[in-house]
Amino acid sequence: MNYSTLKLEQHQHVMHVQLNRPDVMNSLNQELADDFYHCFNELNKNREVRVIVLSGAGRAFCAGGDISFLKIISGQTHTETRNLLGDLFNKFTIVARVEKPVIGALHGFVLGAGFSLALVCDLRIAAEGTKFGAEFPMMGLIPELGCNYTLPSLVGLGKAMELAFTARRFDASEAGRIGVVNKVIPDDKLMDDVMALAHNIAGLPPLAMGLTKVALRKGAVSSLEESIKLEANINALCYHTDDHKEATSAFLEKRKPIFKGR
To answer: What is the architecture, at CATH level 2, of domain 206-252?
Structure first.
């Protein structure tokens, strides 16, 4: 797969997807949205890929929306803008819908829509020097790209209100304390740490990992009763997979299991 706005590198069962518009700090536009959606859709169908790592080239993970693209949007009618934004948000939030763990490797600037994109990832690992910000009000906008769901889910409504109302930038240390990121590490160790985590996850049963993501994301917006029903339904399938049988056999035989994703 070749894309003008993305760079892909496969490392065994881990695919590293890099936003590749470094001259504009990987700001989001329509071309990137189209490439992004097609890429993640294809990776979701690729059985050789078990974990996806998302990062940004150059000085930033993503500094927000492309100003030139925002100017195009502002020249449209309300209906045209609503439809375009709905399509755009849907294409980037495919991260949450692919049945594979997605790890965000964050560095530099993670601002505006770039902040929202990071929050859609399943796990977020940040370099110490990273700067974050929900800076939408500074542009006369509300948080977008799912941020009104993901941010309160991670940090609570009160802290989400504070970050959105003040539009202030905050560092990786604070991001770690409040739950925006899972881990903060030295800048020069970011990709080594992220790839090690990705390979550890890729070594687990891929079907179970993908379905765990589905169950957790649905469970986060469900009742306990609904979650229990979903768990019973999914595990009724998992118990009959070759991976479960391999895990059981390996445990009894005191050996390392070999999972094949079926």
So the answer is: Orthogonal Bundle (1.10)
